[in-house]
């Protein structure tokens, strides 16, 4: 399993960023995928999950209405469109795959998002 995030950077409050995660080494289309973030000095925080078809999505209350998760099963890519960014969105964002059989928990290297004026 390989997950490679990209798209992070420095953005002003109110701005937008689009994160992507390139997945390989597994059958991407048969797994739900998630984004998780970790702010400086804090634990990990679940952000959003998308089901296999892309039709079902869930979001944490902190990002609902501002972030949109999507996937392209033809390109094995997971995306996160982030709008109306706030300083509290500053974190390293990770693409995350959890599998049941066999049990596994896979993470990319993360991409840094910094929201600051």
Question: Gist?
Answer:
The chain is mainly β.
Task: Describe it.
The chain has strands at residues 2-6, 9-11, 17-24, 33-38, 44-50, 57-59, 67-72, 77-82, 91-99, 104-107, 111-115. Strands 2, 4, 5, 6, 9, 10 and 11 form a 7-stranded mixed beta sheet that branches. A 4-stranded antiparallel beta sheet has the order 1-3-8-7, with no helix packed on it. The model has no long low-confidence stretch (mean pLDDT 97). With 117 residues, the chain is mainly β. A hairpin with a 4-residue loop joins strand 7 (67-72) and strand 8 (77-82).
Shape, per Cα inertia axes: globular
Q: How many strands appear in the DSSP assignment? A: 11
Biggest sheet descriptor: 7 strands, mixed
What is the string of helix and strand elements? EEEEEEEEEEE
Proportion of strand residues: over 45%
Q: Radius of gyration, Cα only, in angstroms?
A: 14 Å
Helix content: under 10%
Distance between the termini: 37 Å
Mean pLDDT: 97
How many H/I helical runs? Answer: 0
Which regions are unreliable across 5 or more consecutive residues at pLDDT < 50?
Answer: none
Structural class: mainly beta
